Amino acid sequence: MEKIEGIKVIAFDADDTLWVNEPYFQEIENKFCEMMEVYHPRHTVSRELLGREIRNLEDYGYGIKSFMLSMIETAIDISDSTIKVEVIERIIQYGKEMLHKPIELLDGVENVLGQVSKQFRVVMATKGDLLDQERKLIKSGLEKYFHHIEILSDKKEINYQKLIRHLDINPGQFLMIGNSLKSDVLPVLNLGGWACHVPFHTTWEHEKIDYSIENQKFRQFTSISDLLEII
Amino acid sequence: MEKIEGIKVIAFDADDTLWVNEPYFQEIENKFCEMMEVYHPRHTVSRELLGREIRNLEDYGYGIKSFMLSMIETAIDISDSTIKVEVIERIIQYGKEMLHKPIELLDGVENVLGQVSKQFRVVMATKGDLLDQERKLIKSGLEKYFHHIEILSDKKEINYQKLIRHLDINPGQFLMIGNSLKSDVLPVLNLGGWACHVPFHTTWEHEKIDYSIENQKFRQFTSISDLLEII
Asked: What are the residue ranges in chain A where pLDDT is below 50?
């Protein structure tokens, strides 16, 4: 892979790039669909929940609390307001369990961060709840490698523009690494920054895109450890 | 009032310092207590809700989504799981209304920001949901005065320590302005920073303290416009 040049800051996405996240959401979504099976088949419940989550994004943003509220709203909606209180209690319980999940680091992460943080300013750039992401960073033991955390309300061009301005660098000095082509790669390339894609085995429906990327500032990784060969 | 010297960054709290916030929470809390009056007198419901909010802080953090979830949990709890689904629907509706409230700027704010942003780096330092605070800043028309927003998961010494480090200044170069002695003033003074208190007519129970502050880096304002006389 061709080397990357001229960068000053490396930003890492967190969920499903540094540690496991999406499978926990899917596990709870499965339990939710199972509870709601008395009203609709699982795939219908799942589709309704996804639609609700997307409609709520503008109001609630990303993260576990938003997911909890979207499940509650979907349960009320699908049951035509006849849902039992126990189901709502169970949803809240699931949400709280998610907030307390242990952190499972992905392969190679600690080694890569240890190496690159010696040469570059390294930041964590993620969506989701600030408190939850801070808690996960502390639990992960990775805090020492990061200059600071940047929580973005979304990962569109405008958000990266603000981030890059805030870092006092130009886009060509910025490298983003993450598992989502839509959120971590495309908007950064569009601004003239560098981006590396580290695939994770599962991706949230709302993050999927279906075309390939041709850009000289883009690198496709098979593992996060590939980073060490190109900087 | 004695002048403040040597500062580089002025940080403003947002809710109830720049714009009205707590009265909206109190308005919804009143409606909630009214709905729950069939189970308990209002002051009991209010106390239960406060207790729930405080217990949930560690899991949920601050902001409207946390408030919504705490109201839902309190409703389930107080009703011994017999609460009607319509009540939960109403809570969600209230929360969404709060997220869409218009911004009501407090007196003098725009003039003060216009003046100080010419001489200092000005940031907004607030708790709450990132997305909600960003939305309020944009709706307020005040965005142009701020270098950037800092959302803190809490406003304790450790959070200000990280903020000050992130701003690449020392504590003596940092001035915090806000309506909460507990969150905006005390932790900053403890770190060796400057702090000004701008009282707001109402304060959330959890933010109240009952002693007076003696510190040469502390200034008590009657209005935010007092700032212009001391810098």
From this structure: none
